[in-house]
Amino acid sequence: MTSFSSRFGLGLIVIAAASIGASAAPVAPMPIPRPAAVRPAQPPIYLRDRIAALGRAFDGRVGIAVKSVDDGWSANWKADELYPQQSVSKLWVAITALDMVDKGRVRLDDRVTLTRSDLTLFHQPIAAKILGGGYTTSLSDLMFKAITTSDNTCNDKLMRSVGGPDAVRDMIRNKGLGAIRFYDGERSLQSRIAGLTWSQSFAIGGAFYQARNALPFTVRKAAFDRYVADPYDGAAPSAIVTALARLKRGELLAPASTARLLATMGNTKTGKNRLKGGLKPGWSLSHKTGTGQVLGASQAGYNDIGILTAPDGRAYAVAVMIKKTAAPLPTRMALMNNVVRSVITQHEMTYSGSYTL
Fold first, then answer.
1. What is the pLDDT, as a whole number, of residue 352?
2. Helical pair 164-174 and 152-161, crossing angle rounded to 10 deg
3. What is the phi/psi pair of residue 234, to 5°?
4. Residue 291, SS3 per DSSP
5. What backbone torsions phi and psi does residue 179 show, to the nearest 5 degrees?
6. Residue 197, CA distances (Å) to 91, 150, 190, 297 in order
7. Where is pLDDT greater, at 334 or 32?
8. Crossing angle of helices 139-148 and 90-102, rounded to 10°
9. pLDDT at position 204 over 60
10. pTM
11. d(C-alpha 199, C-alpha 173), whole Å
């Protein structure tokens, strides 16, 4: 081979090697486009402004949340703060019980016996039957009474029968319900709010009231104020309406359990002139009330939450939660009535093109 040929051949080898080296070099991966963030659906302007006006005008610390079950938008007023739930928290006990039914861990017809050691305080209509010598009933009956009549003893017995407060807290966490707390039951909660430590002797007659009244006012006020500032059973209205919307859509429980709970909530006897007072003919409400202790002129916790269903089947989750107020009861009820009326007005404006106030 001539010198030229040798140099030419060597050049080809070098070029080829360089080409191979270039093709073998690591290539930077193409960036994977990220999906655009999904913007939450915007609430209708009328309802957004009306909810804000109602919240602003109320003489007290109130949170209001409305969520469209079907369209996903929310209209809120100070709805991300924690508000005392009081008996609203009975809803989470019922969901925990039904979730365990769905998983085959308990049955609603399981029998339980209540004795004097199960008595709580405040509203407990079942106490008369227990004091008559004990009372045996089913988990289904306990749940129905806890939701529809807000019986504290029924609720606490149901809670203990399905695993206690830890089971309820586990359900809230596992289902991702968000900013919702659950305390240790009515006896522990109400005693702490009052500045007392629970004694079972408080459960009968007026013993709890006597013990509470015997405390110095400064002690009661300090305990009351601590609760209002950081409620042990606190929940954000925004989290509650999201949970209610998921319940209505069948995302929290099996179909039969969902239907049972919504029907039970539809039979609630308490709070006839809270949210329910704003209904129009053809509309329905499945709801749960909550009412807290009073100190002086102020009450900590006056609530109603539920699912409002239109005649056409569209639904809205609603929560009105009053953290603290001295406003008269008719004023509080009027606020709740007006929130519901505003939702109905917005629905009629959206779907029928006309509305009546």
1. 81
2. 80
3. -70, 150
4. strand
5. -75, 70
6. 25, 23, 9, 24
7. 334
8. 150
9. yes
10. 0.88
11. 30
More confident of the two residues 9 and 265: 265
Instruction: Give the per-residue pLDDT at 106.
Output: 97
CA dihedral over 251, 260, 64, 228, signed as positive or negative:
negative
Ramachandran quadrant class, 353 (left: phi over 0; alpha: psi -120 to 50; beta: rest):
left
Please say if the pLDDT value at position 10 is more than 60: no
Q: Per the structure block, which two tokens stand in for 212?
A: 């509470």
The confidence score (pLDDT) of residue 158 equals 98
3-state secondary structure 140-206: HHHHHHHHHCCCHHHHHHHHHHCCHHHHHHHHHHHCCCCCECCCCCHHHHHHHHHCCCCCHHHHCCC
Return the pLDDT at 6. 43
Please give the structure tokens belonging to residue 98. 């039904």
CA distance 193 to 197: 10
The single residue listed with the structure tokens 């006020």 is: 221
What element of type H or E holds 212?
A: helix 207-214
Helix (H) or strand (E) holding 138: strand 135-138
- 216 vs 235: CA distance, rounded Å: 30
What DSSP letter does each residue of 70-123 carry, written as one string?
Answer: TT--EEEESTTS-EE-GGGGHHHHHHHHHHHHHTTS--TT-EEEE-GGG--SSS
